């Protein structure tokens, strides 16, 4: 049997590996307000009450909406709550996701996050590189990282992370400032980052998969469903547990706008998977990967 550690050092503290991603607290397509703001507030409060001490957000969720809901629900923040945000994009009037990578864009985004979250300093700011939307593309990110490093020197940002990046881009950024996390797309059936996960683990850098359950197109796998039924869990709980077992530096931020679903996600941390089950899950990554969205 394999039971992973449920804590990991991140941004100068130890956090629970099961965190919470706030993206789904905004309206449809992460744009505009939610239809039930009180329910969104309740989910955040339940997450913290359940032991979540790592919340992932961005001021381009909504835009502004998600951070304002976080502030309403949780401010003044507990000392042990780590809020991670990201910069590098803005939303068009039609909800489009637009790159915003110029120095003035990044500075404005940091100040927007500070204002809407009600903070004087941001714990972690991830540079969201646009690349090929959900897949990284090579190219220098030095100017953007240098801008965040300058904001770090000014005392507005404590730690810098990266999102949607390659190994070469991580190395480039590390020559400018310490990188505390990488947030890329990765899940049971989307495994392009296998080598990067291991590389970062060796360096003590957290890896935070976005779309850990497949994102806008949830993971579909007959083999996963059959295994989950046998283990009396849900397929999504099993997919989250696989990530916790995959590597100790993986921190999870599954999102939901439902308290019941949040509780279900949190229970994934309690699953203990046998070597046989892990082998079967690893095989799904090979056989089903071509079907992933």
Write the layout of secondary structure elements.
Elements: E1 7-10, E2 13-16, E3 20-21, H1 37-49, E4 54-56, H2 65-74, E5 82-87, E6 89-91, E7 97-99, H3 103-117, E8 122-128, H4 142-153, E9 157-163, H5 167-174, E10 179-183, H6 194-203, E11 206-207, H7 222-230, H8 235-246, H9 259-267, H10 275-287
Parallel strand pairs: 3-4, 4-5, 5-8, 8-9, 9-10, 10-11
Antiparallel strand pairs: 1-2, 6-7
Question: What does this entry show, briefly?
Answer:
38% of the residues lie in helices and 16% in strands. By secondary structure, it is an alpha/beta fold. Strands 3-4-5-8-9-10-11 form a 7-stranded parallel sheet, with helices on one face. A two-stranded antiparallel ribbon has the order 1-2.
CATH class type: Alpha Beta
How are the strands of the biggest sheet laid out side by side?
A: 3-4-5-8-9-10-11
Order of helices and strands: EEEHEHEEEHEHEHEHEHHHH
Please tell me the total number of domains: 1
End-to-end gap: 31 Å
User: What is the tally of beta strands?
Assistant: 11
Taking all Cα atoms into account, the compactness measure Rg is: 18 Å
CATH topology: TIM Barrel
Average residue-wise pLDDT: 94
Shape: globular
Strand content: 15-25%
Helix content: 25-40%
Counting H and I runs of at least 4 residues, what is the number of helices?
Answer: 10
In CATH, the homologous superfamily goes by the name NADP-dependent oxidoreductase domain
Q: Report the structural category.
A: alpha/beta
